[in-house]
Amino acid sequence: MKTQLQRIRKEKGFKSAKAFAEHIGMSKNTYTNYEQGTRPLTLELAWEFADALECTLDELAGREWPAPVFSDPGQAALNGYWESMNDDGRDALVHTARLMSGSPDTRIEKDRPAHDGVPAEVERSA
Prior knowledge:
mainly alpha
C-alpha cells in the first residue's frame, strides 16, 4: 500500500505529502507515517484516502481485478470482441444483439416479452 498511496497521491496532483495532508486535515507527520507504512492503515482511513484521491480501495491497495471467466466459449468470444472494438463497433454490436433479442427465433424464452438485456451504462447510442 505504501508505494501505491504515494504514487496515486502524486498522480492526483499532490506533489508533496504535506500538501495532501493539509488537504485532508491531517498533520504531515501522521500522514507520512501512513504513506511510509510505519503506521497501520485502518479500513476506514483507507476509505477516506481513496475518497480524497478519487480512487478505489483496490487501486489504493494495488489490487488488479481478475478477468472474468466464462463457462460458455461464445460468451467469452463476445466479450473479447467487445473489448477489441471502438465505440462505433460496440454500438453496432449492441444494436445487432438488440435486433436479435426481439426475434422469437433467437430468444430462449419465446413466450416472454423481449427485454433490452443490456444495462444502460453499457449502451451508448445504439
